[in-house]
Amino acid sequence: MSSGALPGFRDFYPDELARRAHIFQAWRAVARRYAFVEYDGPPLEPLDLYTRKSGDEIVGQLYNFVDKGGREVALRPEMTPTFARMVGARANALRKPVRWFSTPQLFRYERAQRGRLREHYQLNVDIVGEASEVADAELVAVAVDIMRELGLTSADVRARVSDRRLLSGVLQALGVTEAQVPAVYAVVDKLARQPREVSAEKLAAAGLSAATVEEVLTLASGTTLETLRARFGAHPAAAESIERFGRYLEHCAALGIGDWVDLDLSIVRGLAYYTGIVFEFFDAKGELRAICGGGRYDTLLKALGGTDLPALGFGMGDVVLGELLQDRGLFPTTIGTTADLYLIAGHWAVGRPYAEALQLVSALRRAGFQVDHGLNAERFLSQATRNQVDGAKKAGAAAVFGVREDGEVEVTAILGKMKDAPTHTMSLAAILAGEPSTMQALRDWLRAQRDSISNSHG
Ligand code: HAM
To answer: Is 294 a pocket residue for ligand 1 (Cβ < 6 Å)?
Structure first.
């Protein structure tokens, strides 16, 4: 028997799942705030959905096989082709612009390393039917607001933005031919990950002159829109893209994300279908892989057999983001807290039937409380109170409760110090009857206990 999950696959123990859920909650909350609606598609797709348009890199990483019906299939390595197919098939009926989001698990046979696994969850946020660069700015704003929602700032994360049309215009102005462009993109895409000499050699091998190689490397290592405007603003191949990019940056500023965004011509994106503005988010220290990436893919819907509509979107994985939140201590410490209330026998009136304990637990659950107990009648009646309270603490409960001699239910907070722990009493009969005012009073009391603890912890 194998001793663990396959390489690059994760087991999610409850603490890990709680961290994943924390990320998902931010994804969903922000996507909905921007009026995106959720969708999903099949995890298994026809192989040719990816071989047609995704590009060689991702096709080389596919988990594909022939199914029992002889079909060539693949586990989805990305969501965009499924999204494009689904929207393309109903393009006429859908209200535009389409704003959809999804959180699929994706599978890529990559070499497992820090930030890269063979499965990951990826938020996908996409818009269809809008060619204006306002939509491009809106997308980056979604990604930035997710960073903010998770407690990250523009000092932690940078959005590197570019435009394939801008880069190709600049290259054309520098005399690079159309045939040379794909090779140049490939080099520029890897600029940060390979030595400058290697990039220079590859550009020379693509047929660029020594002077052009130098110019391309310099521009791709960092420039500003002002520099580009001064240098290429009058060139017919680049002028329009420069102006468009200027408007895009203005929209970003107006949406309140101006200080997160850096122009970076080395961002071209590995996937084959991008046509316009593209972006990737990185940690500001440059220690981790990309947090997210996306851009405009105006020709993909048509290429996959659908209606000709402009489209754009991004994907944000849970792996690098999780590493960053962990590094910065930004996962909440309350993760793993389970129950509101834990039943103990400490206050249990001698001689009361155990069935009454279960009825009490059940009545509180029906009122919406999270209630835990030991699932063993003998131990419940015989174990020392201190051990039961310890058990309740380990279970992450906020308070313990039981029935006193006088038939009142007593609840004791265990979030802080036990010595002067606040208590709350209620009538057992009222709880068993599910009396709303009794339940509301308990709810309010529990909230007050939690608030006072979180205040005293700052
Ligand atoms: P991508 O750049 O391949 O784009 O992936 C987007 C993000 O998913 C990456 O920045 C990274 O956070 C995460 N990711 C990708 N591969 C892995 C992996 N092996 N392990 C962990 N995380 C990973 C796309 O997939 C595009 N389809 C995104 C898109 C949506 N473009 C338009 N709409």
So the answer is: yes
Cα–Cα distance for residue pair 348/380, rounded to 1 Å: 10
Instruction: Output the tens digit of pLDDT for each of the chain's 458 residues.
Output: 567 999 999 999 999 999 999 999 999 999 999 999 999 999 999 999 998 876 778 889 999 999 999 999 999 999 999 999 999 999 999 999 999 999 999 999 999 899 999 999 999 999 999 999 999 999 999 999 999 999 999 999 999 999 999 999 999 999 999 999 989 998 998 888 889 999 999 999 999 999 999 999 999 988 999 999 999 999 998 999 999 999 999 999 999 999 999 999 999 887 788 999 999 999 999 999 999 999 999 999 998 888 899 999 999 999 999 999 999 999 987 655 678 999 998 766 667 888 999 999 999 999 999 999 999 999 888 888 889 999 898 888 999 999 988 889 999 998 766 667 899 999 999 999 999 999 999 999 999 988 887 776 54
Question: Do 120 and 247 belong together in one domain?
Answer: yes
Rounded Cα–Cα distance for residues 304 and 88 (Å): 8
CATH of the domain at 362: 3.40.50.800
Close Cβ partners of 34 (under 8 Å, ≥ 6 residues apart): 99, 125, 138, 141, 142, 145
The residue nearest atom 26 of ligand 1, judged by CA position, is 315
- Residues β-bridged to residue 409: 403, 426
**Sign of the torsion angle spanned by Cα atoms 327, 329, 331, 337:** positive
DSSP 385: H
C-alpha 54/C-alpha 271 separation (Å) is: 6
The CB of 54 under 6 Å from ligand 1? The reply is no
CB of 319 shorter than 6 A to ligand 1: yes
DSSP β-bridge partners for residue 342? 372, 400
Name beta bridge partners: 127: 99, 312
The verdict on 262 and 376 lying in the same domain is: no
- How far does residue 332's CA lie from ligand 1's centre (Å)? 25
CA distance 4 to 17: 17
Ligand 1 contact, 10 CB (< 6 A):
no
Decide: 314 and 308 in contact? Cβ < 8 Å. no
Structural domain boundaries, residue 317: 14-327
Our answer on whether the CB atom of 136 is closer than 6 Å to any ligand 1 atom is no
Decide if 333 is inside a domain.
no
Is 146 in the same domain as 259?
Answer: yes
Query: What phi, psi does 123 have (nearest 5°)?
Result: -70, 130
Number of domains in the chain: 2
Specify whether 380 is located in the same domain as 306. Answer: no
Q: Is 28 touching ligand 1 by the criterion CB < 6 Å?
A: no
Take residue 315 and report the two structure tokens written for it.
Answer: 């994907």
